[in-house]
């Protein structure tokens, strides 16, 4: 009995001291919510890896935020050097493509309408909204597992978030599919909590001109454009009809595919706008694909790649099928 009492005391003491150094799951979630409410400004540099077609597609990402709801996300594709900017200001949501000197305005409630793996506010929203959030403490980090809410994708299911214990800012995000394959990885390299922004930083024209000056000499020039064909389509699908015409900017191709899930692809060479003017209005949401930002509606997907506008339309294909189809244009193939 004398031996048992010291052992019991030791167990009790270890339990007490262990509890003192550990926060409850609800405490962490509450702390993150409070930090978001107090956050007024930040700037982050990150690297994003989208894994598709058995390859990593890397982007350098810069995120700027100013309270209450001004966002500016600059993505540079390391493969093509193409730069795109997603901008939310008082006038709306825009996607800018400096190489084309063009911008597109969205009828969308981006960025908080769905999960955004590179945005702190979106990450915390996913954590707070998931009643089954799992928090695990490792050294000076918290590993948080939650569900994701990709508005037009059922392929992406969960995410693993590594949070710094001291700053409560994410260090790494891994977005997983239903088979636990890593599909998107974002690593946050540098966080500035008191950056100095130019007062025009979130204005459309300033953002376009500044991007062209910053990336001058590195933006793609689209000299070697060619009509592309999808390399990944559903079994039984085949091309039914194809028309390629010469137009002022180069070529336009219309391809019709038939089978169990028919769809049409339109490709058109784009010209670089000499003068930056009003944005083209798009009714849809900006979504990530391997080449950059695409524009998605219920039955279509549009994106720009190597100076060509790609447009997929189908009443049958799901958003995930359109996503996979679009990514398969990254590889040139025979019909």
CATH class of the largest domain: Mainly Beta
The helix-strand sequence is HHEEEEEEHEEEEEHEEEEEEEEH
Q: Give the full name of the CATH homologous superfamily of the largest domain.
A: Lipoprotein localisation LolA/LolB/LppX
Strand neighbour order, sheet with most strands: 7-8-9-10-11-1-2-3-4-5-6-15
* Overall pLDDT confidence: 88
- N→C terminal distance: 83 Å
CATH architectural grouping of the largest domain: Clam
CATH topology of the largest domain: outer membrane lipoprotein receptor (LolB), chain A
- Calculate Rg over CA atoms: 23 Å
Q: Total strand count, please?
A: 19
| Class based on secondary structure composition and strand pairing | alpha+beta
User: Strand percentage, roughly?
Assistant: 35-45%
Number of helices: 5
Characterise the protein shown here:
This protein is of the alpha+beta class and 335 residues long. The protein has 2 domains: 25-214, Clam (outer membrane lipoprotein receptor (LolB), chain A); 238-269 and 297-330, no CATH class. The protein is built from 5 helices and 19 strands. The strands form 2 sheets. A 12-stranded mixed beta sheet has the order 7-8-9-10-11-1-2-3-4-5-6-15, with helices on both faces. It has a 7-stranded antiparallel beta sheet with strand order 12-13-14-19-18-17-16, covered by helices on one side. A hairpin with a 4-residue loop joins β10 and β11 (182-192). α2 packs antiparallel against α3 (120-129).
């Amino acid at each position: 009995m004398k031996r048992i009492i010291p052992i019991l005391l030791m167990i009790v003491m270890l339990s007490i001291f262990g509890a003192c150094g550990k926060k409850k799951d609800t405490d962490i979630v509450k702390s993150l919510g409070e930090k978001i409410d107090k956050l007024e400004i930040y700037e982050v540099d990150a690297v994003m890896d989208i894994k598709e077609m058995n390859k990593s597609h890397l982007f350098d990402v810069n995120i700027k935020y100013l309270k209450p709801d001004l966002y500016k996300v600059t993505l540079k594709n390391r493969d093509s050097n193409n730069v795109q900017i997603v901008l939310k200001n008082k006038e709306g949501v825009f996607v800018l493509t400096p190489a084309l000197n063009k911008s597109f305005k969205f009828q969308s409630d981006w960025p908080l309408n769905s999960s955004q793996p590179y945005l702190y506010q979106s990450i915390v929203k996913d954590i707070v909204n998931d009643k089954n959030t799992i928090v695990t403490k490792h050294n000076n980090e918290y590993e948080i597992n939650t569900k994701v809410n990709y508005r037009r994708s059922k392929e992406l299911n969960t995410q693993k978030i590594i949070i710094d214990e001291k700053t409560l800012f994410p260090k790494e995000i891994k977005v997983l599919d239903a088979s636990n394959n890593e599909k998107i990885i974002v690593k946050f390299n540098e966080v500035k909590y008191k950056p100095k922004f130019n007062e025009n930083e979130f204005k459309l024209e300033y953002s376009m001109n500044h991007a062209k000056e910053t990336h001058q000499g590195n933006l793609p020039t689209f000299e070697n454009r060619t009509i592309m064909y999808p390399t990944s389509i559903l079994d039984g699908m085949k091309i039914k009809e194809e028309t390629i015409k010469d137009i002022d900017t180069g070529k336009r191709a219309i391809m019709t595919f038939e089978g169990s899930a028919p769809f049409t692809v339109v490709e058109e060479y784009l010209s670089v706008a000499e003068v930056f003017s009003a944005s083209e209005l798009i009714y849809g949401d900006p979504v990530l694909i391997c080449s950059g930002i695409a524009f998605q509606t219920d039955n279509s997907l549009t994106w720009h790649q190597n100076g060509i506008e790609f447009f997929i339309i189908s009443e049958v294909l799901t958003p995930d099928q359109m996503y996979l189809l679009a990514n398969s244009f990254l590889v040139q193939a025979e019909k």
